[in-house]
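Example record for the data management plan.
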Amino acid sequence: MHILVLNAGSSSHKLCCYAVTAAAVAPQRSLWSAQIDWHVEHVEIRIRSGGQTHQESCAIAPRKGVLSRVVQTLWQGPQAVLAAASAIEGIGHRVVHGGADHQQSTVITTDVKATIDRLREWAPIHNPINLEGIELMEQILPDVPQVAVFDTAFHSQMPMVATLYPGPYDWFEQGIRRYGFHGISHQYCAQRAAQLSGQSLNRLRLIVCHLGNGGSLTAIKNGRSIDTTMGFTPLDGLMMGSRSGAVDPGILIHLMRQGHTADEIDHVLNQESGLKGISGVSNDLRAITQAIADGVPRARLARDLYLHRLKACLGSLIVGLEGLDGLVFTAGIGEHSPDVRAAVCQSLGFLGVTLNETKNSNASQDEEISRPDSRIRVWVSYTQEDWAIAQDCWQLLRPKP
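Corresponding structural encoding:
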């Protein structure tokens, strides 16, 4: 079964096509993949097919137009790997917020689309983009079934003490509760860590650190999410690329009394805060690292604050787990920043965490970077959200015996 996967992030759009023949835990390599990165003044496109990579840059254009052109290279032009569009038998979408309505992956219907649209205010950077991709695929491939795989689903069985906010109880009855996000990545990386360790996931206490432009930590015990740093929206928790993470709600009340509107505050918290807001340089840690080398004081402050908040959140989850067997780093920063991994693990030295410095500096995907004498094992895992989405699509759409 040929399955096309669309995975929209806050600053990028990834697409993959898999030939799935059976549900397997070990990831398969995609037949074709593409990544679209949205920058302030241009768009970068990278397409991989047949062992070859094609790259191009173009001026800013409407998202739908760029996405449509890239998707059609699957069966048109030199990057084509399918004979025709009709070869695609299923389409999977990462959808960030499913609320309380959707606690597992589901075939997309008119009602599912309405829920995704209704929850756009709870995930303003993501849900509108997710819905846009679904509607675009309806236009390009109208007869192909589509599946929504929700980032919130993995966290849907967190205990009530990790779910409730300490406001009036009727908040919970209105749906105002902690949902958690990046669940597809957290669940996949926990499963992968168990495989790499040769142990049963049901016996491990793990924390997965999904650190990218958006970031969250999840405490996983016996294979289940028991706590996570994001909450009602993807804005909570860690300091991120352009998102503030957790702030005193009194600040927001203060800003509203000064005359700022909800939309203005929403924009500041989601688009102008985090690494970007503190550094004044960029939301990208790589650019901030270069700015530190160039002597920009606020860039160093931004990195130091990012690490301070990350360590504080990590500590609270370790206490909630009542111990820790393994730590997993994933996503853009988690996979590619040895300095961040080293700084975090150094702060856990009192728990007996020791890194193999050579492995940490040269980590490839899915590799243990802790030393044999480390009391807590540490892995770098290349998050395979797209493969996990393809698996769920296969399970829902495959012919039943």
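Summary line stored alongside the record: The chain has 15 helices and 14 strands.
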